[in-house]
Design goal:
GO terms for molecular function: manganese ion binding; RNA binding; RNA-DNA hybrid ribonuclease activity. The protein is an alpha/beta fold. It has a single domain, classed as Nucleotidyltransferase, domain 5 (2-Layer Sandwich), CATH 3.30.420. The chain is built from 8 helices and 7 strands, in the order ααββαβααββαααββ.
Length: 229
């Protein structure tokens, strides 16, 4: 049997980065849903601080240039786009505290923050695009969960930027209240600096006590790696 000839560029479509656009929003509009909101959250993985969600309804005539997954942008560019989004779009922000996360779990707390952000929009959304695998329960409109949504939808990308910048600012302010942990540098993630601060001073009220390595077991503190975002 003659062996198959491999394609000229087998990894072409795996290596081309996704660039968010407005197609999913227009598809929903064509189906009779308008306006369309994008929703995303920031802060699922850190050991400390809230999880913050944002919902954004973009004006199709004034979409800021350069919207993308917040993780693909520099801090300076996120700040610039944050200002532009707030000036041109309808935006709502909500958060779930570390206490709320510990009382439920990070998934439920994230979805609840996202639900509250969506429901608090000054202009009610007719349809919602959310990043990830879940649409928050309890919405007054239908929605669609979009895997890698912040790299596919500009509305979700805008929400990811608003959520990220808002949370980073919250953690920078928290640094002034709890200066022993370095929150301004790592925004609550489990860096060596952060873990050293916990070792020296113990946890503070912002820490998520249900997360490893803060979570206690019958045999003592957990030592496994923290949950990832």
């Amino acid at each position: 049997m003659k062996p198959r000839t491999p394609p000229d560029s087998p990894l072409l479509f795996d290596t081309v980065p996704l660039v968010p656009d407005f197609r999913l929003e227009l598809k929903a509009r064509k189906a009779g849903h308008w306006p369309v909101a994008g929703a995303d959250e920031a802060g699922r993985g850190p050991l400390a601080g809230p999880v913050v969600a944002a919902a954004v309804i973009l004006d199709p005539k004034r979409i800021p240039e350069g919207l993308n997954d917040s993780k693909q942008l520099s801090a300076q560019r996120r700040e610039e786009l944050f200002v532009q989004i707030l000036a041109t779009a309808t935006v709502s922000i909500a958060s779930s505290s570390s206490t709320r996360i510990d009382e439920t779990d990070i998934r439920k707390a994230s979805l609840d923050a996202m639900r509250r952000a969506i429901c608090s929009l000054a202009i009610p959304a007719s349809y919602v695009l959310t990043d990830g695998l879940d649409v928050p329960p309890g919405l007054d409109c239908p929605g669609q969960a979009v895997v890698k949504g912040d790299a596919r939808s500009v509305s979700i990308a805008a929400a990811s930027i608003v959520a990220k910048v808002t949370r980073d600012r919250m953690m920078a302010r928290a640094h002034h209240v709890f200066p022993d942990y370095g929150f301004a540098a790592h925004v609550g993630y489990g860096t060596a600096q952060h873990r050293a601060g916990i070792e020296r001073h113990g946890p503070c009220s912002l820490h998520r006590m249900s997360f490893r390595p803060l979570r206690k077991t019958e045999d003592g503190p957990e030592t496994d790696e923290l949950l990832s975002e």
